[in-house]
From TrEMBL:
The gene is Elmo3. It comes from Jacana jacana (Wattled jacana). It comes from the Eukaryota. Pfam families: ELMO_ARM (PF11841), ELMO_CED12 (PF04727), PH_12 (PF16457). The lineage of its organism: Eukaryota, Metazoa, Chordata, Craniata, Vertebrata. GO terms for biological process: actin filament organization; apoptotic process; cell motility; phagocytosis. One of its GO terms (molecular function) is SH3 domain binding. This is ELMO3 protein.
Length: 718
């Protein structure tokens, strides 16, 4: 007979005792359950004991999490969290080095448990950890355990990072600046500062002053991947906490030290695969660097600014220098002004009498002027060729350099997301960004020449301006999607994708669309759908069986903690558990936690999820909300996820909906279905190539007057 829902059958162990098999009544107070267990083993003082999981993170059982206990769970009777906190609090103050080290090691392990952490913090345990660090006597293994315990205790957010003392931060800084320090200590020290910097401007100023960029660059150049990662994390934290002026100063210094080239050569193109966390930091570094253009992008040109007027005049002088010099001494002021207006018109300004008005629109604002000046100064031959070539064309066929530059700058800002906040999870960066300095300007130089090339290929006139820029946008986005590793490779590929190639791609897509809209084809699509949807369902379940590595993300920062979740091969149980960095596909037996699929009730996504509704939910950006989903199971328990990518989000939500007997709803499902339907239709319609398919089936002929045309086998020759 099935046991009641509020009763679970479990085993309880204790060192030196025969295990007990009990029926745990979930409605019975936990203190009473523990007292019954202690009475069975004749143990006095039941209040000094607690139950704890034997596997996984060995979490203490409390009234709040007891609902997660499953049938068949094995628990351990152990010292209660408050008793253990007392013992370790005394142990870390011991004068015996071995006792102190062992206590700190145990503390680092137990501090992962929220119940123990709260008890230890309530006993003012953090103050003792501060003392151990600030005293400076702890080194090596002891110091590593101390910092590890501190990090685990702070993870629970019982104590604000702002409460840390300056002496403590200075001591942590000293470990980073020392050469003869254990790598694990430096990793943990970098992590401490990474968390402290965003919480206090004083900490930011202190760390920025004491941990020089040169020192961080030294840590970035080590072969230890974890130390390299933590150094990059602190660098990113400093950049994000800095003011615009400080950020500009820091980026200028990093440019002087050729950090981009180092990253391009030794991190992106290293022999080791790029970790997800490092990919995220490179994305943030790229985003922060590009966002330095935001101020110029949002600033309109000031016609009264002498500096800006001189930049504008330099464009004209570079293009028409010989003509201007020859006429300067022979023409009157009025004639010279007329000549300048004519030259600005040849440059492609809409308002040639006052070209500054063309740059009043923001965005792209002054960024467009900066790009034009950069192009004219760094590639003067290409600039002169562009301007003079179009000056000699008929008026209606000339490609306006200035107007094209302004619009192209706006397009590049949109494609590269200039001025947009950094995502908390994105990992999409362009490898070629780290190939050289002045990436945005160099990319502009390539693309403005592409505009001129495409203009000629399209035989465009002024009326076709928007069409040409649409084609150029398509050329740029299609080429960037290929992730070229250098600007030279980008230049080669984008120039190969000429107007005729774009037309071919558009025609192919259009024909495919028209072909699939014929009535008989639509009917065939509907017949094929059930079979292909089943194929997608099986693929989703297979992906869940393979499993995925998820990160725990708090409102404060991207966390280092990882956990893995996968579906059992028989599709009946979800297995999950914490894993260490570097573990990519743990065996299902190593994942201690389980959720029977039969207990799953519902799937929540986005804002419906409980982990996006907490007190800090205001800090979750749109990107995280789009990747969040939760499973509701058993007695209103939740398993919360933040998918690493949108692709994983789609596959997991589809797979979970399949397990719940619901329809797959993700956009990826529709994309996969369209691809499969397209392939299947093409295969079935191969014999009908170049044959038009009628919208209605041909009429069925009338039946014959008689059916006597059948061959009679009875008269066959013997």
């Amino acid at each position: 007979m099935q046991p009641p829902k509020d009763v679970v059958k479990i085993a309880i162990q204790m060192v030196g005792a025969i295990p007990q098999l009990i029926d745990l009544q979930q409605t019975k107070p936990l203190a009473s359950v523990i007292k019954d267990v202690c009475d069975a083993w004749s143990l006095p003082n039941a209040e000094r004991y607690a139950l704890q999981y034997t596997d996984g993170r060995q979490t203490y059982i409390t009234e709040s999490n007891r609902g997660e206990i499953k049938n068949g769970s094995i628990l351990r009777l152990t010292t209660s969290p408050d008793q253990e906190a007392d013992r370790l609090y005394s142990g870390i103050q011991s004068n015996n080095v071995d006792v102190k080290t062992d206590s700190l090691k145990k503390l680092a392990s137990l501090s992962q448990d929220v119940t123990f952490a709260q008890e230890f913090i309530n006993k003012n345990g953090l103050k003792q950890i501060f003392y151990i660090v600030e005293e400076g006597n702890a080194t090596g293994e002891m110091l590593a355990h101390t910092l590890k315990a501190f990090m685990e205790l702070m993870e629970h957010d019982f104590v604000s990072w702002e409460t840390l003392g300056t002496d403590f931060i200075k001591k942590i800084v000293s470990y980073i600046n020392m050469n003869a320090v254990d790598a694990s200590v430096q990793q943990l020290s970098l992590s401490v500062l990474e968390n402290a910097v965003p919480t206090s401007h004083n900490f930011f100023e202190l760390v920025k002053k004491e941990v020089t960029l040169d020192r961080l660059l030294t840590h970035l150049q080590v072969t230890n991947a974890q130390l390299q990662l933590k150094a990059m994390a602190l660098l990113i934290a400093l950049l994000l906490a800095a003011t615009d002026a400080e950020r500009q100063e820091m980026m200028d210094y990093l440019r002087e030290k050729n950090i981009r080239q180092f990253i391009h050569k030794n991190i992106i193109h290293s022999s080791e695969p790029l970790a997800d966390e490092m990919a995220h930091y490179l994305y943030v570094l790229q985003s922060v660097s590009l966002n330095l253009c935001e101020h110029r992008m949002r600033t309109s040109m000031d016609p009264y600014s002498k500096e800006q007027r001189e930049l504008l005049q330099s464009l004209r002088q570079t293009a028409f220098e010989s003509e201007s010099e020859a006429s300067a001494g022979t023409f009157s002021t009025e004639r010279r002004r007329s000549l300048c207006a004519k030259e600005f018109r040849k440059l492609g300004f809409m308002n040639n009498s006052n070209p500054a008005e063309d740059l009043c629109r923001a965005p792209p604002g002054l960024l467009a002027l900066d790009n034009m000046v950069y192009f004219s100064r760094h590639t003067p031959n290409a600039y002169s060729r562009f301007v003079l070539e179009n000056s000699s064309r008929e008026d209606k066929h000339e490609c306006p350099f200035a107007r094209s530059s302004i619009q192209l700058t706006l397009i590049l800002c949109e494609i590269l997301h200039v001025g947009e906040p950094c995502s908390e999870t994105a990992q999409a960066f362009y490898p070629m960004f780290f190939g050289q300095d002045h990436f945005f300007e160099e990319l502009f130089c390539i693309c403005i020449q592409l505009v001129n090339k495409t203009w000629k290929e399209m035989r465009a006139t002024q009326e076709d301006f928007d069409k040409v820029l649409q084609v150029v946008r398509e050329q740029i986005t299609r080429t960037l999607s290929l992730k070229p590793t250098s600007l030279e490779l980008f230049k080669t590929r984008v120039n190969a994708l000429n107007y005729s190639e774009i037309l071919k791609l558009r025609q192919t897509e259009r024909l495919h669309q028209e072909e699939t809209l014929a009535v008989p084809v639509l009917e065939l699509r509907e017949r094929l759908k059930p079979e292909l949807l089943e194929l997608i369902r099986q693929q989703r379940l297979m992906h869940l069986c393979e499993g995925t590595l998820f990160r725990k993300i708090s409102s404060r920062r991207r966390q280092d903690k990882l956990w893995y979740c996968r579906l059992s091969p028989n599709h009946k149980v979800l297995h999950y558990g914490d894993v260490e960095e570097g573990v990519h596909s743990p065996p299902i037996e190593s994942l201690p936690e389980k959720i029977p699929v039969a207990d799953m009730k519902m799937l929540f996504v986005g804002k419906e999820c409980p982990h996006t509704k907490d007190k800090s939910s205001g800090k979750h950006n749109k990107d995280v909300l789009e990747l969040a989903f939760s499973i509701v199971y058993d007695m209103e328990q939740y398993l919360n996820f933040i998918a690493p990518t949108r692709y994983e989000f789609c596959l997991w939500t589809d797979g979970l909906n399949v397990l719940l007997g619901k329809e797959m709803m993700s956009e990826r499902m529709q994309t996969d279905l369209d691809v499969l339907l397209s392939m299947e239709l093409k295969l079935r319609l191969l014999d009908l190539e170049n044959i038009s398919i009628p919208d209605t089936p041909p009429p069925v002929p009338k039946p014959p007057s008689n059916l006597n045309f059948c061959y009679d086998f009875s008269h066959a020759e013997q």
